[in-house]
Design a protein that fits this description.
Strand order of the largest sheet: 3-2-1-4-5
Number of helices: 16
Number of strands: 9
Oligomer: single chain
Distance between the termini: 26 Å
Helix content: 40-55%
Bound molecules: fe (ii) ion
């Protein structure tokens, strides 16, 4: 049985050997043979053909993080060479594999790699390259143009699969009362890949198609915005992803709220308001019961409706400052909520929402975070698209 770690190690080994020996040299042929055999026998859980994602400090096989390859040097090199994703479209031959290795080697050897050269090798049955986002409904024509100019070889993500995984995750929480941590992390890693396909940070945001998608689109958007903000504040990749998981799960307590209350077009009565306001405590409870690694997510779920001046809910008996991650998610949460059309009001344009946040900076929101958020939105290109149920296209 092949395994993904063994394949990647022998893949890296062959690249190393190829720099030392010319074509046809026995050592080189032996190394390529060994890597090809590993790849040939490799399948993902479910029998699909292998797909790898390389992040700065992690390697993901399908949706599973390869712990053995944490901070793998070659992963960094591949990312620097514009290779963030590697996937097989069909079984390939030994010759095709050899040609592919030479291409990769060529890219690795270029001292300054231009990621605009990201390309696919579809004819060989292997696609690799940087990752971009499938744009369908951008808010800004200039961004559409920018998107259209992405190199044609850029692999495109639609986030349909991430939304699907999150819906599954919500069902799991509902039926088992526990949050599946690995899947939550997998969604966040995919979002992080989608944010960094281009040389500029991209904020891949989803827009509602149907109302019952609200919690899904909102949760993915808050995760993206929170990671974008954390990144522009200089947080490290691991912290950024923890904040992403916290953003993704901040409203998980809403799974217990009846849909008629969640989607009520008018003002809530006292009883409904009490049900609605219990979601931070319910969310924190379910997260705490799930995994001790989710401490930050539990704190954020508990605190994300508490204002800087202590207002909001739940009411703290002994007022204290909320965690930075909670204050950060609070800003992103309100931004996305106001930017989304709800049964009782239209979506607000970005400028109006920013004005709302700025007017309340210092009372409801942390002013430094509002200022940083405004900068993040200017720096990151927001790609907004309607969530569809079409399968992901990568
Ligand atoms: Fe909330
Ligand atoms: Fe929220």
């Amino acid at each position: 049985m092949s395994d993904p770690v063994r394949f990647l190690n022998s893949f890296a080994h062959s690249l190393g050997v190829m720099t030392l020996y010319p074509e046809g040299h026995p050592s080189r042929e032996k190394a390529v043979d060994a890597a090809f055999d590993e790849l040939d026998g490799l399948t993902m859980p479910g029998g699909q053909l292998p797909a790898f994602t390389f992040l700065e400090d992690e390697v993901v096989f399908g949706r599973e993080r390869l712990r053995e390859l944490k901070s793998w040097d070659w992963g960094k090199r591949l990312v620097a060479a514009g290779i963030e994703r590697l996937e097989l479209e069909r079984k390939i031959t030994r010759d095709e594999f050899n040609a592919f290795l030479e291409e990769v080697l060529g890219r690795l050897m270029l001292s300054a790699v231009d990621t605009s050269e990201a390309r696919q090798m579809r004819s060989l049955g292997i696609r690799y390259g940087a990752v971009g986002l499938q744009g369908q409904d951008s808010i800004d024509p200039a961004l559409d143009a920018a998107f259209a100019s992405l190199p044609s070889g850029t692999l495109r993500m639609t986030l349909g699969e991430e939304a699907e995984t999150f819906r599954w995750l919500q069902n799991e929480v509902q039926s088992n009362g526990a949050v599946p941590l690995l899947e939550a992390e997998a969604v966040v890693r995919s979002l992080s890949v989608a944010m960094h396909g281009d040389s500029r940070m991209v904020l891949p945001l989803l827009k509602l198609k149907e109302f019952d998608q609200y919690t899904t689109t909102h949760s993915l958007n808050v995760a993206v915005l929170a990671m974008g903000l954390a990144e522009s504040l200089g947080c490290r990749p691991k912290e950024i992803r923890s904040i992403g998981v916290a953003g993704l799960l901040h409203d998980i307590g809403k799974i217990r709220i009846p849909l008629e209350v969640l989607t009520k077009p008018g003002k809530l009565n006292d009883e409904e308001r009490a049900i609605m306001n219990s979601h931070p405590i319910d969310g924190a409870r379910v997260i705490m019961q799930s995994d001790e690694d989710l401490g930050m997510a539990a704190t954020v779920a508990y605190e994300h409706h508490i204002m800087l001046n202590g207002g909001g809910y739940p009411v703290l008996h002994y007022p204290r400052e909320c965690a930075m991650a909670s204050r950060l998610v609070h800003v992103c949460d309100v931004y996305d909520a106001l930017s989304t059309k709800r049964p009782y009001r239209d979506a607000w344009p970005s400028e109006k929402t920013m004005q709302y946040l700025e007017e309340r900076a210092g009372t409801e929101f942390d002013p430094d975070l509002v200022a940083a958020f405004s900068r993040t939105l200017k720096l990151g290109q927001a790609h907004v698209r309607v969530l569809s149920d079409e399968p992901e296209q990568i």
